[in-house]
Amino acid sequence: MAFDGITIAAMVKELHTYLDGGRFNKIAQPESDALLITAKGSQGQCRLLLSASASLPLIYFIDKNKPSLLTAPNFCMFLRKHIGSAKIADIRQPGLERAVEFELEHLNEMGDPCKKILIMELMGKHSNIIFCDENRMILDSIKHVSSHMSSVREVLPGRPYFLPQTQEKADPLTITEEEFTETVCKKPCNISRAIYTSLTGLSPLIAEEICFRASIDGSDAAASLNEAACTHLYHTFQRLMDQVKEGDFTPNIIYRGTEPVEYSVLPLTQFGTEYHSESFTTVSAMLDSYYSSRDTLNRIRQKSSDLRRIVQTALERNRKKFALQSKQMKDTSKKEKYRVYGELINTYGYGLEEGCKSFQALNYYTNEEITIPLDPTLTAGENAKKYFDRYGKLKRTEEALTEQIAETQSEIEHLESISNALDIARAESDLSQIKEELTQYGFIKKHSSSRKGQKAQSKSKPFHYISSDGFDIFVGKNNFQNDELTFRLASGNDWWFHAKKMAGSHVVVKTPDGEMPDRTFEEAGRLAAFYSKGRTAPKVEIDYIQKKHVKKPAGAKPGFVVYYTNYSLMAEPDISDIKEAPQI
After folding, report:
1. CB neighbours of residue 67 within 10 Å
2. What is residue 274's three-state secondary structure?
3. b or e along 313-325 (b: 16 or more beta carbons within 10 Å of the residue's beta carbon)?
4. Which residues are CB-neighbours of 342 under 8 A, at least 6 positions away?
5. CA nearest 458: which of 418, 426, 487, 506?
6. What Cα–Cα distance (Å) separates residue 156 from each residue in 31, 49, 83?
7. Which tens digits make up the pLDDT trace of 23-37?
8. Would the pTM of this model clear 0.85, i.e. be above it?
9. pLDDT over 90 at 565, yes or no
């Protein structure tokens, strides 16, 4: 997900499309390290965001305006004074460096034409926005860097501007095969690292992609490549660079389920079948979608962390309780032995001598002779009573434990289903329903304070998919929704799917007459697999049955059902090709 030189090359192509021959109209500074430039080009008015954030440097077009700081900072005021209505003469990228230069033409205070250069450097924590004159002398920058902060380069007014050369890297657009072999193939590290540390503007992701396309393991030592392998690797690399030179870009995001994993402006082939790709028409649209999705997921994860901690703590407590109860239940297996001892003492013990420590008797249940330990201080009758008392105590313990173990198992299954709901939550409204369930079942204390004044949240709705054959498929996001789907939305002939013997969502396929093509059965099974605890497994066993055979026991927790006759199928937890219906 690095904003590397290739992504910047694609962005520069997009900048030319929208800004060639255009002008800057307005310059604002929404954050201390970012500029928002409103410009008008051949495609009309647009907003360009330049962020020199140390953690997330970006340059792309945005649709929505960003609120500016109440008082414009000095850098912003300086830019407004000089290039507030400047004409865009050129936009360029030096080689594949992570920098974009805007050459601007404007009139000075005397009315004479002048040139200025606005440079955006996207270099991680060293990112900066630098304003220079036509001789590349620094006039000002959004971040000042003194010699105390960097021994490589000062970024201060009056200093000459140059790109920092902290590493000797070759230009991937001009490197020859001989230079590639010397620079990359003989480096004392693995092949992937050799590529991105030897060539300007290449990220580890692109280096791995080059290795994958060349059918070479990127983790192998670069020195292990023979001459033929080096030649093949270079030609694979060159084909990728030809795409960059020709501007043949395909902005795309790689998803795992609904989670964005990586983005690139070149097709990525290194990801397996559990991933899927979505293409975009522009780099800006790709970046906006990627970071808005990541922000949403991060916000949901952050907000769900307290709920996860509550669920995990309760799960650990119940699992410990279950282990202790299971051990105690194992101990009760001795009860039958004590009952038999008592019976045999009553049957054969009339001739026992006083003070006996044991005696042998024929067990008439197994027709085997056994030795029964005795307490020498007790009579035969008292020894028999002692064994019957032990039997009675263990029997009562077994009866109590049977009920307690069932309750503990039910509690664990309930908590695992809530944990699964947290894993698939996409919005704050989803978390709200989960919190309501945890409160209802005593895992979170109820607060008696009034809810007046609290912002009303939109109601969470089940996932809605359309099968390849046009059938509506609904997936519950939590236990409340599972009950709603199965016992209110679904009719008797609809088909119901669920992962076998594990926490997961109820999946309902709406059918008017109960008839459904095999492909829809398979797609519904994949949805049930994906929205279950088995989503990381290669395949998951799925139970499916018509809804009329699914029952809810009296007093059962939300989402819990019983069924006795069902069909089964094995499904891959991959839903990349199943169409999600638009939310209403």
Report:
1. 9
2. coil
3. ebbeebeebbeeb
4. 384, 385, 387, 388, 391
5. 426
6. 20, 23, 19
7. 999 999 998 899 999
8. no
9. no
